[in-house]
Amino acid sequence: MSATKSYDHMLKKERQQAFLYYNNITFPPPASAAMVLSPSILIASLSSLLFLLIVFRLIIRNRTKPTTKEPLNLPPGSFGWPFLGESLALLRANWDGAPERFLRERVAKHGSPQVFKTLLFGERVAVLCGPAGNKFLFGNENKLVAIWWPSSVQKLFGKCLITSVGEEGKWMRKMLLTFLGPDALNRLYISAMDAVTQQHISTHWQGKEEVKVYQTMKLYTFELACRLFMSLEDPKHIEKLAFQFNIFLKGVIEIPLNFPGTRFYSAMRAAAAIRKQLAAIIKQRRVALEQKTVSPSQDLLSHLLASSDENGRFLTEAEIINNVLTLLFAGHDTSSSAITLIMKNLAELPEVYEKVFR
Fold first, then answer.
1. Co-location of 198 and 323 in the same domain
2. What is the DSSP string of 162-207?
3. Rounded Cα–Cα distance for residues 213 and 218 (Å)
4. Which parts of the chain span the membrane according to its record (predicted)?
5. pLDDT digits over 55-78, tens only?
6. 182/136 same-domain check
7. pLDDT tens by residue, 236-260
């Protein structure tokens, strides 16, 4: 049985996702000699026209915006084109499987190995490079800097663990992390993980001559997250959620243009569909908790519905839905990427595999 097909191709895709979760870039087909005005061409043309109008409006707004009397002390760099900034350069590097090239070129160009400014996906940002930059950021959280996500993330996820800062963020972390600690791992997660893993191997690995590891691992981690967080076991229900979730993922790091034809628009629609399904699951779980047919400590969902802080404050239903969506997102790409790379390295290093197997 071959564990994977084309590791090199997988690694190239993985480097793209690991940098910015952005790996599906499509280009229009070449124009034919005889053009036929089909509905799809008309929609694409109208979308392009609307996009150009938005960009033109932003250019005019930026040029007419009053400037401050004293210039800001910004790091070296360039904001590039209005609104688009240097997003296209980043996407080109990402498409080539070398997203780090974008950083290296700007570090060399601006002569600043520590920090440079740029504009990505409609947001003006400062990019901090190297160990010193990481130390500064992680050592000054909620002091000199605060966690920030692009507007696309904030709009898609809503009020949740990753978008809340300050005291609100601390309170939300406390509500969630009490159920994600070592005690819960030993008490609930190990047995469930073992059951899901055995079922997954039986269904997707045994008897197969070839397995596309990365895609299979994405399905596995999503199944596992649904089981651990919501006790969801129905394969059809999980498949329905996974379909919408994959559409949702493609718009997380995107230019937030919310009109038909854009990935962000599709992601917003997918997020709404996921929230609708999660709301139905929550409704059923509330009934089960009231009837005491399930335990408040059964899984994360029951815990969030049944638990309050010392002041009697509960998470709202919207906050619970947003946080479950966040945890599904957090456990999806990163875990599947790590598992895939571990399997690749074990396949290439049989002596290490033998030691692990023992």
1. yes
2. TT--HHHHHHHHHHHHTTSSHHHIIIIIHHHHHHHHHHHHHHHTTT
3. 9
4. 36-60
5. 445 544 444 444 555 567 888 888
6. no
7. 899 899 999 999 988 887 778 888 9
Token pair listed for 5: 């097909």
Whether 264 is covered by a domain: the verdict is: yes
What global pTM score does this model have? 0.70
Domain that holds residue 133: 1-15+75-145
Where residue 12 falls among pLDDT bands split at 50, 70, 90?
low
Residues 6+ apart with CB under 8 A from 136: 128, 144, 145
Q: Are residues 84 and 190 in the same domain?
A: no
d(CA 333, CA 214): 10
Cα 107–Cα 112–Cα 114 angle in degrees, nearest 5: 95
pLDDT on residue 293 = 92
Residues 235 and 138 in one domain: no
CA distance 302 to 296: 5
Q: Cα(8)–Cα(31) distance, rounded to whole angstroms?
A: 32
Q: Which tops the pLDDT comparison, 319 or 18?
A: 319
Identify the CA nearest to 245 among candidates 317, 332, 163, 161: 332
User: What CATH number is attached to the domain comprising 251?
Assistant: 1.10.630.10
